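Help wanted!
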Amino acid sequence: MEVISPSGPVWLIFLLPLIAFAVIFLLIKPLNKPKLASFISIIAVLGSLALSTWLLFSLLSSPEHELTVPSLNWLVVGGAINIQFGLILDSLTVVMLMVVTVVSLLVQIYSQGYMRGDPGYHRYFALMSLFTASMLGLVMASDLLVLFVFWELVGLCSYLLIGFWFQRPAAANAAKKAFIVTRFGDLGFLAAILVLFSQTGTLDIAQLHGLAAAGVLGGAVLTWVAIGIFLGAVGKSGQFPLHVWLPDAMEGPTPVSALIHAATMVAAGVFLVARMYPLFEHSPTALLTVATIGGVTAIFAATMAMVMTDIKRVLAYSTISQLGYMMLGLGVGGITIGIFHLFNHAFFKALLFLSAGSVNHATGTFDMRRMGGLKRIMPWTYATFLVASLSIVGIWPLAGFWSKEEILATSLESQPLLFYLALITVFLTAFYMFRIVFLTFGGQYRGDTKPHESSRVMVIPMVVLAVLAVGSGWVNVTGGFDQFLGHGEGHSFAQGFFGALAHPLAWLSQVFAAGGIFLAYAIYSARWLSAERIRRRFFPVYKLLSNKYWFDELYENILVRGILLNRFFAGLKFFDSRGVDGAVNRIADTVVTVGQTSRKVQTGQLQLYGMFIVLGILAIILAMYFTG
Amino acid sequence: MTLGLEHYLVLSVVLFSIGLYGALARRSAVIILMSIEIMLNAANIALVAFSRYVVPGLLTGQVFTIFSIVVGAAEVTVGLAIIIAIYRRRETIDVTKINLMKW
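Answered by r_m:
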């Protein structure tokens, strides 16, 4: 592997936003210059984008698509522990760098309009910078422990930004929920790291890959380690059954949802599986787990998305569903297929959120029942939202088509059952996305404010993202993306721009997508079918879906209250109050009793004391006399 | 029979023991004060005796004794004053009943 030179700029990729964070928090915030804060933040991420692009071209011109920089010693304890702070510069890293920097840049530009006049403007941009830095560090880290540190840092930023408007109890609670639920997944991840370290004595990712490939790391240990790592990904990427935090996370500002809870952080779980893929590859059980959880999550979340009335919540469930697709792609296909969908999804989903934010800015609500008719009032928002919707649904030739077809094609080859789930999900996706389109932009306006198109600073990033939502998939039209990511061994489904349509599967998915769109049109635009009547006809189903399968209640009442609070924590409390405190109290009581008894010796009678003094002196004299 | 140092010292010990017994066993504060004086004087006798027999030329012991008697007189004055004050307040000088600061 070639050493990249100069190596300084590579480190700057994630250091720039980190410096921006420090500068904004320490220097700019006391000055109270909001404009300057956003300016610094955007400049920093622009710098990171420029450096990432430079890195991308360096990688493209290097034969193995992989470069290296000298790493730094971080934790060296004797000869046993040697944790290096190093960077992996391979195609996976650089793809993620491009996604993070581009989306972060556009979202931050958009935020200048969306967050204008907010009292927490400095804090917002400082945290956005910190998040960007952590996310960039996460994708570049070469050591599992370093990766874990960044992993927790993005979780922290997510917590802080979901709870950005912490005065609102809902936001504060959602932040806590997100933090705690993901912790369950991180427990598995941490356990996997510890097991790996005890088994191999190293946490260097490249070395672990080598050990897994050589078969040193194998059998049940490898399977459990892979599943532990996947558990971390399940928490972070909102996969079933730890999906409950992501819809609530929509309490944060909408650009935050776009960047963190749609494009980047939630995709970190997918990235993690891709990064550790050689470990999964050698464990069919682990791969099957990934594929199954992914496929089930995809359809499970999509069903809930159909009945939500809050536009952001629909998008949140849609994100969970699409992340499920990515996991399915990883499980059945490989890194390239999952990451390709991640790449495309980042752009169109960020765009969907930004458009939803634009709608919210205009109408002051997220409730689709109080929108409608915005097509004429907000033409740019409508156009971009429509493009992104078509892309996520997977209509040829938009970005979503290319990655979704690959996932469908590979899952049909290896897991037919999951393929049917995924195919039904295509239909559901089309339905819920166009339900939003028709409810929000079609018909008559049902709200009571006067909506208007958003300012240029918000519209321009949306338009840029719309271009990406159309074209980002084209990088793989001839399999170029696969070859870049797969280090030469490309597996391409697509045979050219029109060649993709030669595949019968493509037509099948187009038909399913069109069917979903048509059903949404029939119900919410043409009103051939009454939504109200369908709801009453299938009331039990509707109730099940709108209550999110009662997962919140299940967790809250059974897991948290029933098992944790009443059993486990009550047991701990019993042990603490009776065992630990009991021992302390018993000792204290004994001392008090002894004291109460022995204080009687102190009669206060001076003559008695005197007698004891005399007796003592006599004893000493006698002792000296006899011992000489 | 000639009187030697031992005789004086035996007298001193006997007096000291009588004083000690009185100080520890009697209840009346006045008797206790008197007993303490006896112990003081037992020590004085020992001092003079040592001075006379051990370093005959010097008067150190005698001078020291005179100091001691003066101090003893002052102490009795103060002690009696305290006893009178206690008697005025509590109408007793029985030391077993003067136990205000006891638990």
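OP: Thanks! One thing I noticed: The first helix of chain B runs from residue 5 to 25.
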